[in-house]
Amino acid sequence: MVLFESMLTLLVIALVLLQVSRRWPVPYPAMLALAGVVVAALPWAPEIGIDPSLALALFIAPALLDAAFDFPPRHLRRYWLSLFSLAAVLVLLTTAAVTWLGVVVAGLPLAAAIALGAIVAPPDAAAASAVLGRFQLPRATVSVLKGESLLNDAVALLIFSAAVASVAAGSAGSAAATGAAATTPVALWLAAPGGLLLGFIIGKIQVAVSAPLAGSLGGTLSEFVSTFGAWVLAERLHLSAVLSVVALAMTVARYAPEKTAPRDRVHSYSVWDTTVFVLNVLAFLMVGLQARGIVERLSARELWPAMAFAGAVLLVVIVVRIVWVMFYNRVLHFFSIKQGARKVPTLAQGMLTSWCGMRGLVTLATALALPQHFPQRDLIVLSALAVVLGTLVLQGLTLAPLIRLLRFARDESFDHELIAGRIALIDAGMASVENERGDAAEALRETLKADREAIDAGKHPREAAKIDDLTRRSIAAQRARLADLRRSGEMEEDVFHTLEEELDWAELAASPPSSFELVEG
User: What does residue 32 show for φ and ψ, rounded to 5 degrees?
Assistant: First the structure.
């Protein structure tokens, strides 16, 4: 019950702080981080633990599905070199640098130092996206950053799993020793392709069962079953659970839209947005609570060296990313000019990418996944929290000013592509009724023609159309009358809610998309 009360307290604080994130370009994970620390500092907040395997599945699987669903596989081919540089090379360099620091400065065992490096290596795109989405930046840079957050999780978790398995193999009677035996070089090489294949198969099954479950809560429930099922099954088979969920999400995103009803899609998006957000809140709370327990257990003589080491890890993580990204950017710039490429990476793009290194949910969840008796666990968890808080506050709060300082040229390719797509859809609609006769067909043709004119004028059809404006005003009047009928007792609750839902869908149909976007989404 105490945990539940702490969770509610954190949600209330998060709701308040999120209003700051709405009005200023502050990434909402930074607000959650501050809220988690505040709640963890409360005197009645409990110290709690979580099963390591559950921590990874519970926190990472939904976040990966949410991110991978919007990332098209063709971007992997288009930006493969940049993605390999960030998601593989940079993760290995960061892990190596932190490992060296852990062994030399803190005296950590080699496997424990590697685990720490893998925990703090992967940045989280959610924090950067919360700020980047408010600026018209080069789409290639944004796509690379989103792709990095998917692939670097897989690389970091493979390293983390190998380090934990190594410790488990050397500890007789360890609970993780069973899984350690499977973590051989051959198994690691098979983990990635096996995970991708497993995710693809489960994704195709999910697409197949979505049609019979359409229009029911079972459809959304099956998405949870397939997501967590893909993770658990991959773990059981010693495959990459991260890549399994990524492949599942990309498969569903590719094949499901044509078979999914609009109402089911709206429900699904709402449920998953809320789920990922609440899990973020819970992860920050749990790590904050564990960090408070660690601080209470350490004496003053032990606390300051531990805090100094955590600060050093934060510094190493930031510096390694800046050095590698800028080096790679300049090398790629040199060869692009030499080969006469049309698009040459700029210094500003490199600076932005190097500063988008905020850590978040993956780092927190991986820290929580450390076994309770892991060597120097307290120091590792404390360092992970310091990296998350430090990067979110330092980089997250300065990212928007940096973007303004770099003065990026407006990338309007998204707007142009969006306008071209809308025109193509309207043309298809007009062609479908071209040979129809009658007042209804003529009215529809006039509506589609007005929509096309609005798009040519640079507006969304629902914003420019007079009839949609009148429709929204009419619906507002109907809502007021509906509320009066309910208050007076002339209408029962079941009828009220049915009519309310009809008005909701009618208002959505007459409103521009911007009117119902989730800021935190």
Answer: -65, -40
d(CA 303, CA 279): 29
Is 109 in contact with 33 (CB distance < 8 Å)?
Answer: no
* Residue 422, Cβ density class (10 Å: 0-12 exposed, 13-18 middle, ≥19 buried): middle
Q: Residue 175 pLDDT > 50, yes or no?
A: no
Structure tokens at 312: 């050093």
Residue 518 has pLDDT above 60, yes or no: no
Dist CA 280 CA 99 (whole Å): 27
Tell the burial category of 74 from Cβ atoms under 10 Å away from its Cβ (0-12, 13-18, 19+).
exposed
**Is-contact 115 160, C-beta < 8 A?**
yes
Tokens (6 digits) for 22: 């709405």
Helix (H, G, I), strand (E, B) or coil at 439: helix
CA distances from 405 to 330, 398, 409, 493 (A): 20, 11, 12, 55
In this structure, what DSSP letter does residue 256 have? S
pLDDT tier for residue 311 given thresholds of 50, 70 and 90? very high
Query: How far from 29 is each of 148, 398, 516, CA to CA, in Å?
Result: 18, 14, 21
Give me 420's structure tokens: 């071209």
Residues in CB range of 303: below 8 A, 6 or more apart: 295
What span, in angstroms and rounded, lies between the C-alpha atoms of 369 and 358? 20
At residue 262's C-alpha, the angle toward residues 258 and 265, to 5°, is 85
For residues 284 and 22, give the distance between their C-alpha atoms in angstroms, rounded to a whole number: 20
d(CA 498, CA 505): 11
pTM of this structure: 0.81
Query: How does DSSP assign 84-117, residue by residue?
Result: HIIIIIHHHHHHHHHHHHHHHTS---HHHHHHHH
> Minimal CA–CA distance to 90: which of 98, 79, 101, 100?
98
Length of the chain, please? 521
Task: For the chain, state the CA radius of gyration.
Answer: 25
